[in-house]
Amino acid sequence: MSQVKSDILSRVINNVKELSFPNKPNTLYDPIHYFLALPSKKIRPILVHLINELYTNGEFLKDAKHLSNSVELFHNFSLVHDDIMDEADLRRNQQTVHHKWNLNQAILSGDALLIKAYEELSQVSEDILLQSLNLFNESSRLVCEGQQYDMDYETIEKISVHEYLEMIRLKTAVLIGASLQFGAISARCSANEQRILYEIGEEMGVTFQIQDDYLDVFGNPEKFGKTVGGDILNSKKTILYLKALEQTKNTNDFTSLYTSSHKSKVKKVKALFESLQINKQIEQEIETRVNKTNKKIELLTLKEDKKTELKQFFTKLMNRQN
């Protein structure tokens, strides 16, 4: 499985490198080249190719290439604009586009990435073009809804765990689900197979974000790749915070601690999470969701060895420490 992933990752990286942009104005296109070259896991385009290969052994590779490129371009467009909205200085430990250049260039470069995503999408075979376009448009709209909810929740004092899970489903999981379905579309899978794959991807996307929240507090600092407790320092309303808020007896004291500006709060908040066994609850939720995903994989028409391959890929994703 690791070899398959390695082969696909190399292909995805090369596909992105081969994307053609005009030379001028360089003030528009330099930020795009810079951002696309930043190191990333490229999970979404990998998933498009992985599903295509599991069903066709590489047939319809041209369609998988254009669909994976469109997904990757849209994802990067959303990140450039998200960084602006979040006023972030760093992305993948490198300067964000608006910080390295300026706000206006970042907005325009992001827009150009989205246009390029549609250019890639327009190059798929005619028999899957309309379906691909509809899925792309629907997924893109839902991602925007998720981002808006994320911004709204920054100023809303109390949100429920359910509302948070719906937000991360829209903001993160929808595009993971769409990536699997794009792979299925390129492989000409049945509508039912596409539906199951979309649901698998969406479930894994939610699980992936829950694990991100967990690793931020309980991850190994040497492997995590960023400051442990960063979400606490920034007073982010993660699933750990929301569960603790629901279960603690002293909600006012907890809220005051969590929203304070003292760096020492990380140790205290982590201790509170542990006293409420929030870490154990999250570990159990992740395990439950992974098991649910594996059961859905069993519903696919793939041969058993290919089902195992898909499960192993997701297991590797979930066993990451960063």
Give keywords:
322 residues, mainly alpha, Farnesyl Diphosphate Synthase, 2 domains, two-stranded antiparallel sheet, globular
Account of the 3D structure:
The chain is built from 16 helices and 2 strands. The protein is an all-alpha fold and 322 residues long. It has 2 domains: 1-137, Farnesyl Diphosphate Synthase; 190-322, Orthogonal Bundle (Farnesyl Diphosphate Synthase). Strands 1-2 form a two-stranded antiparallel sheet. Helix 3 packs across helix 8. The protein is globular, with a radius of gyration of 20 Å. The mean pLDDT is 93.
Average of the residue pLDDT scores: 93
The total of helices stands at 16
Rg (CA only):
20 Å
Describe the sheet with the most strands: 2 strands, antiparallel
> Into which percent range does the helicity of residues fall?
over 70%
Low-confidence blocks of residues? none
Question: Which fold name corresponds to the CATH topology of the largest domain?
Answer: Farnesyl Diphosphate Synthase
Q: How many DSSP E strands?
A: 2
Q: What is the general shape?
A: globular
- Please, what is the CATH homologous superfamily of the largest domain? Farnesyl Diphosphate Synthase
| Second CATH tier, the architecture of the largest domain | Orthogonal Bundle
List the helices and strands and how they pair.
Elements: H1 2-17, H2 26-36, H3 43-56, H4 61-86, E1 90-91, E2 94-95, H5 97-100, H6 103-121, H7 126-155, H8 161-186, H9 191-218, H10 221-224, H11 230-233, H12 239-247, H13 251-259, H14 265-275, H15 278-297, H16 304-318
Antiparallel strand pairs: 1-2
Helix pairs in contact: 1-3, 2-6, 3-4, 3-8, 4-6, 4-7, 4-8, 7-8, 8-9, 9-15, 12-13
